[in-house]
Specification:
single chain; about 700 residues; mainly beta; Neuraminidase; Jelly Rolls; Immunoglobulin-like; six-stranded antiparallel β-sheet; five-stranded mixed β-sheet; 2 helices; about 0% helix; about 45% strand
């Protein structure tokens, strides 16, 4: 069953939010028509993309193309504008990406996309061009301050345009793997099309791909993930376990949706037996909207396409891992409709797509330029698009929402004013082509909130507008964290592990146990861990900005068995209101870690599995020499070093003795560090700072421990 939720169904209005009944009788919250771009700027803007900080949905970054000087001259310079909000989209600040890169200063920028990693860093990808040559580059800019500023860009690919057969880059798009369970967490992935001339002088294009690991400084060597042909409009996403999926349109007879996949973080893609031509045909268009020779031209829309958009269910719901692709076509040769197709992860084999189904409930008008996002907390499917059902000459921004894996959708009109796509559509960029209203619509879905960013002409110029549909709460501000409940912990896939999380809106359930006797607080969040080998694991919240307590449990929620807990860490750790503990863990046994706030929540900084110093003693070592005995966890045998800092000088102790029970993962819980004349390095009555690095040279340090002999 599909149903349109109309604006006339409003029950009440609270602070700009509209409470609207859903099909099942529950309420969702709609806040829309927030102008994002400056109201006094006449230059047209389109091609939107949107991303939200997964740690705090008040922090949002959007991007668009803007034609500088186009409103007055009818043609102008294409640039990329970015917009950031720190209050959930109520207010916005606008800036421009620079044209300067390490390779050269370009004259144009276009095709922007934006993504955010698991730690809250935003990335903008832009196509950089030069109107005096064929130079082109795909560049990624980074922001660590919520989108206020973006750093000098890193080139994904760059062509100087000076070769006899220069490649022209086009239509770039990025995503970031933010899945907690992914071994490639925080890797940036990029796709784009690259065109040159074949030996006969005809254009040929391939879809290219590259990645940047979180510890890397440069993108990988690009590779083709398609066969040669006419490839356009690439889209990319990641799966819950580090899979990478890409889809794009191939122009031919017929026009097709093509697909490729990787299970190893983009190192390899589908093998030849699964993708004999270099990729896989997912769908033949019955009535493509894409030039050349589209089956149907939508009146008033200067340019049109059928580019596919791909996303994956990364939630813990019943459709976890399911892949979704949306596009627009005119299967009835009368109007354009949005379709969706899903299929399970191919896991290196040839995918088996299901039959496409129409997303929209309406049987007339045109629906086009769709985008899809699957909420990684709930698994709900959200499809945004432009829709002409309300006007013969204008469009509105619509959202279709599904909670049953795409079996049914309800349609929600998000914008309250009709947009005329003709307005400013003929303004040309420096390459001479009309801008239309862009090729896509911005969309993101996170923790029950779905946000849209679209091009709007209600003020007789192309502006950028924003809207929120909140399916999970009745007001603004950040929703509860993903791992708020014991039953939905964040999985820790590998050690060492670190996480940053905003716990200010975390709650406490009736069956949440006390972290330690007498320390029951609130704002609890949960993590799960199943170690592959017997070991002792350290846990700390040292970098957090609020008073914490930590506990480790065995068993099931509601009947947990305590293993270890800590309220305020021991003297010497410097953690008077933070937590640090070690606990013995058995291979293959699942453990639950609870972090609670003593009085409130805040910014949680959690570390699990790093070398941990729990206590220190100046004593006689195994060889009879004066030594520092370090007790804790995570000290790798024959690959650990004790470092003493005194008066700002770091002194590595060259001799280490490994004692205590050796764990199955090659670590011990006790070691002795020494050197000749140690008492001069650790003089009596003078504080020194002691750390352990393990493995040596890895940068994996324990927390500093203040020690006085």
């Amino acid at each position: 069953m599909r149903r349109l939720v109309a604006m006339c169904a409003v029950l009440s209005a609270l602070g700009g939010f509209l409470l609207i009944p859903r099909v099942d009788g529950a309420l969702f919250v709609l806040r829309a028509d927030v102008r994002v771009s400056p109201s006094d700027d006449p230059d047209p803007r389109d091609e939107t993309s949107l991303s939200v900080n997964p740690l705090d949905d008040r922090s949002i970054v959007g991007v668009s193309k803007v034609i500088i000087g186009g409103a007055a001259a009818g043609a102008g310079i294409s640039r990329v504008a970015y917009y950031h909000s720190s209050d959930g989209g109520l207010t916005w600040v606008t800036s421009l990406l620079p044209l300067e890169t390490n390779e050269r200063t370009f004259t144009l920028a276009t095709d922007p996309s934006v993504a955010c990693d698991a730690n809250g860093a935003f990335y903008i990808c832009a196509l950089m061009l030069d109107n005096q040559s064929r130079a082109s580059g795909v560049h990624v800019f980074k922001s660590t301050n919520g989108g206020q500023t973006f750093s000098n860009p890193i080139a994904v690919t760059y062509e100087d345009g000076l070769s006899l057969n220069p490649k022209l880059n086009d239509k770039c798009y990025i995503t970031v793997d933010a899945s907690a369970s992914s071994p490639f967490k925080n890797t940036i992935y990029a796709v784009w099309s690259s065109t040159d001339l074949d030996p006969l002088g005809s254009p040929r294009a391939t879809m290219r791909f590259s990645y940047l690991r979180p510890t890397g400084t440069a993108f990988s060597q690009s590779r083709a993930i398609s066969h040669e042909g006419d490839m356009r409009g690439g889209s990319i996403t990641t799966g819950p376990n580090g899979e990478v999926y890409a889809a794009w349109e191939g122009i031919g007879s017929p026009k097709v949706i093509l697909f490729n996949a990787s299970t190893d973080g983009g190192v390899t893609f589908l093998p030849s037996e699964a993708a004999p031509g270099g990729d896989v045909n997912i769908h033949n268009f019955m009535g493509s909207l894409s030039p050349p020779n589209p089956t149907m031209i939508i009146q008033g829309v200067a340019r049109m396409n059928s580019f596919p958009v791909i996303d994956c269910d990364r939630s813990n719901g019943p459709s976890r891992g399911m892949i979704y692709i949306v596009w627009a076509e005119t299967s009835n040769r009368i109007d354009a409709d949005v379709f969706i197709e899903n299929f399970p992860p191919p896991n290196g084999a040839r995918p088996t797509p299901n039959i496409p189904t129409r997303v929209t409930s309406i049987g007339f008008g045109d629906q086009f330029f769709p985008w899809v996002r699957v909420d990684s907390s709930s698994g709900s499917i959200n499809v945004a698009y432009y829709d002409r059902r309300d006007s013969a000459s204008g469009v509105n921004a619509y959202l279709s929402h599904s909670t049953d894996g795409g079996a049914s959708f309800e349609d929600i009109k998000v914008s309250s004013a009709v947009t005329n796509p003709i307005i400013q559509a003929d303004i040309r960029g420096a390459n001479g082509s009309s801008i239309g209203i862009g090729d896509y619509i911005g969309l993101t879905a996170n923790r029950g909130k779905t946000q849209l960013l679209w091009s709007d002409t209600r003020s007789v110029k192309q502006e950028i507008f924003f809207g929120v549909v909140d399916f999970g709460s009745t007001g603004g501000g950040p929703s509860t964290p993903f791992n708020d409940a014991c039953t939905s912990p964040t999985p820790i896939a590998a050690l060492p592990y670190s996480d940053s999380a905003d716990t200010t809106t975390a709650t406490v359930s009736g069956d949440d146990p006390q972290a330690c006797p007498g320390t029951q607080g609130g704002n609890t969040v949960w993590y799960s861990l199943t170690p592959p080998a017997d070991t002792v694991i350290g846990v700390d919240t040292a970098g957090s900005d609020y008073d914490t307590a930590v506990a480790v449990y065995l068993g099931n929620c509601g009947g947990l068995v305590p293993v270890a807990c800590n309220d305020d860490a021991a003297p010497g750790t410097g953690l008077a209101t933070r937590s640090l503990l070690t606990f013995p863990a058995s291979a293959g046994i699942p453990y639950l870690i609870e972090v609670s706030g003593k009085t409130t929540g805040g910014l949680l900084k959690l570390r699990v599995g790093f070398p941990t110093v729990a206590s220190l003693e100046y004593t006689t070592g195994p060889d009879g020499s004066a030594s520092l005995r370090v007790t804790g966890s995570g000290f790798l045998v024959n690959n650990s070093q004790v470092i003493v800092t005194r008066d700002g000088d770091e002194i590595a102790l060259p001799f280490t003795f490994y004692t205590g029970a050796r764990q199955a993962d090659g670590t011990v819980t006790e070691l002795f560090g020494t050197r000749k004349k140690l008492k001069k390095v650790v003089p009596g009555g003078i504080p020194v700072i002691v750390r352990v690095e393990s493995p040596v040279g890895s940068g994996r340090f324990s927390l500093p421990f203040t020690f006085v002999r």
